[in-house]
Amino acid sequence: MTFTIPMYNASRLQVKYLQIVKKTKADNPYRWIMTLESAELPDCNLYPNQPITVRPNSPTPNHTLYLTNLDDQKMLRFSIKYLYLYQKSATVNSDTLKRSLSRVLVDYYPLAGRLRNADDDQKLEVDCNAQGTLFAEAFMDITADDFLQLSLKPNRSWRKLLYRVDAHLTFLDVPPLIVQVTNLRCGGMIVCTAINHCICDAIGTSQFLHAWAHHTAKENLDLPITPFHSRHVLKPRKHQQMTFTHPQFTKPVTNTGHVDIFTFLQSQPLVPSSFTFSPAHLLRLKRQCVPSLKCTTFEALASHTWRSWIRSLDQLLSSPSLTVKLLFSVNVRKKLIPEIPQGYYGNGFVLGCALSTVKDLVSDNLYHGVKSVQVAKSALDDGCVRSMIDLLEDKTVRTDLSMSLVISQWAKLGLEDLDFGRGKPLHMGTVASDIYCLFLPVIGDVNAVRVLVSVPESVVGKFEYYMNECVDYKEENNDDDNGNGNGYVNNNG
């Protein structure tokens, strides 16, 4: 086998490993893979006097915004970080972006406020004081094409693309919205945003970002969706009624000596793994349920990812009777009675919880996992969600992460269509990979899904093998030599 290693001297990218995918026309094709483990980005140079504060361009309501029990959960006390890459023809002047941001902050004025503790010190609220958001502008000596080659697998150097506030500040001190626009040598740009999860969920962030893009491209036209600010539609009932069991939550307990996979993962060096599933591959995945079971793309892919994750962790396989969990985001805006009003951008999702023993999940095929996901989804009706909101009045309740894989759905939200008036992005993704799994959109193919999750370095090979195991190599072998056919694509490069 021969290969060449491309040089990136012009952009000063430090290539440590190279992935090569080779297909043959033989009956037993071999895949030779060397992983592009890390390609460090060059320095990102902030322009003088950065960042600046962008405030609403007209007066906004000055009041306290109540946050629901779904909003101020402990596990949501972080920012959702998005990354968008635009080629030169789609680039927008930063002054234009700042001006339209100032305009959209009138519509979404809580994002210009600050989080604070309510009187009881256990509850968060938003002080809508128009203090403003941070906007930074920088330059990086790299081209859009260079970055696109690396865009499927984040690493720590990507963090320089998003301005970091002073380390001594607490979570409450950080502005709910931070933006950094990084101009590239080719004339393209990277736009990164950090949006506080206690104020918006993924649907809400998509709604806000599209509103910002709308004001940029169509300055004088009203927003197509008016934001709905009030959170009282999700207040707990006066007399709490926990009439359902909620296995996705737990209370603090002393060390029981049981396996805690979350603690193990946090103690390990983690490696990002990324996989793009084409529509044809997703169809083959669904067909692997035996007996046949009608299911959605999400149900099949979530089950496959959960099963592969469990199979790669020896700590779980050694305890086949252990109960493991899959926690996944479910939009409940239309599940409640009455439905949550259109334009609601707060946290309108809950975590579904699929349960299985290790033995049942890893044996045979996807059927058991898919069925578990479907049962968990069907349980989330109005009564169950209201019971969950009531349960979260108890501030000692925590999301049970000890034996759980968490999947967040970013696909199918329109995040990849963010157009500031001159064109859609070349790439949309996250600034960093984590132990929480993301289902991401694929630019140019609305029916494809990219899976991104970080796993321990010691098991990454096994995890990738199991994620790849469902591929029909004979069918894939008939694809063209560039890998543009129906097959699975491993993006670890």
UniProtKB/TrEMBL annotation:
It holds the Pfam family Transferase. It comes from the Eukaryota. One of its GO terms (molecular function) is acyltransferase activity, transferring groups other than amino-acyl groups. Transmembrane segments: none annotated. Belongs to the plant acyltransferase family. This is Omega-hydroxypalmitate O-feruloyl transferase.
